[in-house]
Design brief:
The complex is a heterodimer of chains A (198) and B (218). By secondary structure, chain A is mainly α. In chain A, 74% of the residues lie in helices and 0% in strands. In chain B, helix 3 packs across helix 4, helix 3 runs antiparallel to helix 7 and helix 4 packs across helix 6. Classes of the chains: A mainly alpha (198), B mainly alpha (218).
Chain lengths: 198, 218
Amino acid sequence: MKQLLVILFSQALVNNYMLARILGTCPFIGVSQQFETATGMSLAVVFVMTMASVITWLVQHFILNPLGMAYLQTVSFILVIAALVQLIEMVIKKNSPGLYRALGIYLPLITTNCAVLGVAIINISSNYNLVESAVSGAAGGLGWGLAIMLFAAIRERQRLAPISQAMQGFPIALVTTGLLAMAFLGFSGFDVARFIGL
Amino acid sequence: MSSPLQAFTNGIYKENPTFRLLLGMCPTIAASMAVSNGIGMGLAATFVLMGSNLIISLLRSVIPSEIRIPCYIVVIATFVTIVDLVMNAFLPQLHAVLGVFVPLIVVNCIILARAEAFASKNGPGASIMDGLGMGIGFTLALIVLSAIREPLATGVVLAAADFGFDGIRLFPQRYAMAIVNQPVGGFITLGLAIGAVNLITAKKKNKGSRGAQGGAGK
């Protein structure tokens, strides 16, 4: 149980997928114009990262490892993730129109979110078991969501600020992300295991 | 547009994937900590781009348009696997530093974007040249960024662990700012660099339009 808490804190805060590992920058900057869309995107990412962690763990341990085909990891994971996203989209569309209205347009974008493939590979290379992988995926998604929501709130205010022509849009967004990452750097010496008394 | 030479030069400045198209931000920031990492990542991506552009261009009449994206991804992932295994065998330290970003070349949007925007519409010759141009443009962008970040963060430039080369020391370690090598430095350097490119482009355009008005070319 404590091990899971350690994974939760370290994946969500200390090794934040966006601000410490630099994964998922494109959607981070692409869909952070408004706080509401950023919230929708975060929910979708948490959902997909958790599901992808579980499925890719099963693929690795029940298909690739027994057959000795671990070198096919990249190909099989990206295919599984693409299929999973498509499947989730269809299931949500059929069973929960409300959720589909909220998440629908973000789901296709998620296949290209490198945080999703990143969490799958990191889970395997960290030797997590199935439950740990699921927690790691959810925590990674939550951390990414926290970062994009903070960033979207900053960007909404930033729209009113006078910014020089050359720095408008993408450049100022990257510099702002840098400052946000600096704030998250405060977590980097944080020893989670000691903090919760492990 | 589809002349091979034009396709080649297009990616280097006018449609530079990093500075002009703003694609593939994650590997750009993660691999620009040292010039050798930048070159390694750039060449790896160039190989994948050329290979996937060639295959996709050859298969463009066979692939049904409804399932083209998964097909492209399989082709790209195959080349990424080749790069991953080769780099692991011959440049193990570079492979360790780049870590998860080597398999993640598969989701580098530059590659899928070129497959979709160029290789699926043009012949194999032009597609290879487009891949080469885009790859070199990406590599040059990585070299520019890492040539700023590496010396600021370590005081050393061109260090390459795989070749046992410690790099050229520009100033003593104690004046180095380690934070430039953190993601923080990467985001800010990339932001300022894109800003600078925007400024230069805007100035050039201004000059160009004024020159045209005056009737004198350039």
